[in-house]
Give the backbone structure.
Amino acid sequence: MLCRDAAGTFWLITPAERGRITVADAPFIGVALDRRGHGRDQVLTIRTNIDEMVGVDAAHPLRVAVAAATGEPRPYVMIRNGLEARLARPVFYELVELACEERVGDATLFGVWSNRIFFPLGSLDAR
């Protein structure tokens, strides 16, 4: 089993041993996207590279970081217990195709709905 402690260290734990491992970015990859419904009522599900299905919701939010060196978006979804999956580029492109504009406070955001929660993919105010 893979887990992450409060200090951010990743551990691989088996019944016989426990070892620290190095994770370069995220321990999993989101390789496929499934959508049920439309608009605010749609439900998005991500399949990981270990064939785990995760519904995008409050417990499994999407987030988009921006690479400092390149300015490119780096999308992630929370899998469990502090473990994230980085979304493969084709999966992120599918999300972008489903995205819409929403006014949130004083900002206009571009993002997707899942389980009646809006998940921003980026801001449109800096156009």
Observations:
- The chain has one domain: 25-123.
- The first helix runs from residue 89 to 98.
